[in-house]
Amino acid sequence: MSTLSGKTLIMSGGSRGIGEAIAVRAARDGANVALLAKTAEPHPKLPGTVHTAAEAVEAAGGHALPIVGDVRDDEVVEDAVRRTAEQFGGVDIVVNNASAIDLTPSESIPMKRYDLMQDINARGSFLLSRTAIPELRKAANPHILTLSPPIRLEEEWFTAGHLAYSIAKYSMSLVTVGLAAELRSDGIAANSLWPRTTIDTAAIRNVVGAELSSRSRTPEIMADAAHAVLTRPAAETTGQFFIDDEVLAAEGITDLSGYRLAPSEADLQLDFWVDPVDGA
């Protein structure tokens, strides 16, 4: 399988950035994409809404279902899965893309911000995935793909000053570990995908550091890597923590200059929880 033609994806978030890029890449195959996102109106610092993302999906050749709602709300998520299945005849793929980020150190972070990250990142990923399981069981090549990192326990990742964020992202990764084991007998794949380098997104520009945008790769590298994972046989591809450039290398794509905003590979900024290629 090398195409998502006729497949139906439901994605949390997706109004912009990596999520929108994944949706548009699937749409180029003719996929159906349901986007569950809160952003219905333009935000001064966050370009794009669920409606503009849906327009991009349609323009790329896919079929879009924009759903305005909060992935933290049980009833909203249940309704989103139901509407997706009714409109497109089922659900083949879940993409857990919605995520909140706050890099405030432990002593200073308000617990409301801690709770927000847990509710969106961990609970949201679990909720959307578990709600879609009955539909995924009926699909021919069902996948759950969560945008979360490999779980690294080296002390450096706990002294970097963003423990609350690490806990939230690792919790998303635990969703992958648990669902892969729980759903293996059903033939439903559960995997995570993470970028080697920072990706030029609103989170990088507004939270991590705007200066990193020019040292990043474009969201399309994650979109192409996600496409490669989602077109693999689910029964043979589960419980993995994929890194974008490794996925593309396995597909024979080693020239990544087209995704690079930095002047050279050496200028790229590594993302959290990853090492340089070959330990360089």
Chart the SSEs and their pairings.
Elements: E1 8-12, H1 17-27, E2 32-37, H2 50-59, E3 63-68, H3 74-88, E4 93-96, H4 111-137, E5 143-146, H5 163-183, E6 189-194, H6 202-208, H7 220-230, E7 241-243, H8 244-250
Parallel strand pairs: 1-2, 1-4, 2-3, 4-5, 5-6, 6-7
Helix pairs in contact: 1-2, 1-7, 3-4, 4-5, 7-8
Mean pLDDT: 95
Distance linking N and C termini: 34 Å
Shape descriptor reads globular
The CATH class designation is Alpha Beta
* Overall number of structural domains: 1
Please state the second-level CATH architecture. 3-Layer(aba) Sandwich
Strand order of the largest sheet: 3-2-1-4-5-6-7
Please state the CA-atom Rg, rounded to the nearest Å. Answer: 18 Å
Strand coverage percent? 5-15%
- The arrangement of helices and strands along the chain is EHEHEHEHEHEHHEH
Query: CATH fold name, please?
Result: Rossmann fold
Q: Decide which structural class fits the backbone.
A: alpha/beta
